[in-house]
Input
Amino acid sequence: MKLVLDPHTHSIASVHAYSTIAENARYSADIGLELIGITDHAPAMPGVNTGRYFFNLRAVPDFLFGVEIMCGAEFNILNFEGEMDIPQEHKETYDIGIASLHRPCIAPGSVEENTAALVNAMKNPHVNIIGHPGEPLYPIDLREVVSSAIREKCVLEINEASLIPGGFRAGGEETIANILKLCKAENYPVVLGSDAHFFTHIGNFENSLRMLEELEFPEKLVLNTSVAFFKEILWRKRK
Output
């Protein structure tokens, strides 16, 4: 399976990531990617840049080293009502919006509460992707999350960082596999995201691809295989 894009990468603007946008783009060009998303953490994440960073995202070129750059943010879900720290500056011009549950921003709740947080976040018009829904700290009702994603025109991410053995999000493999099974049954696409915090991790989907193969997940439902398909699905909410 040839993958041509990685929608979930971080730059030094996230503070706990260690590469510049230019470094991310140059490496992506070197490994043959056509598009990357620069989705730095929104301001509620401790230590990251303020909303003013997002105000000037349009200063970033649309292409660097031949790689298309989609600028946006990884929003932090703040409560079970799905409120997020979406910076107001230029929010209408974000190319991509990922909504995620992060421990520094919201304490894990019950299955019902965690599910409500994701479902409510999906209703926001600026959210295109739900980040790392297999996070083991936040158990969810998988059928409700998948059905809500379909209804709200959101895409569920298969997060490579969540599948690295011994990684800080390890333990969610069964949940991620079940998400894939449900999406396969519903003929609904998913997107793979590296969640790279250093440029050499961009485009590395080794564990995700292994799981896709084991589950015989259809290539036609993997958005990373086509920039045009990715954009078509990603931006449905804007129509």
Helices lie at 21-30, 52-55, 111-122, 142-152, 173-185, 206-214, 227-234.
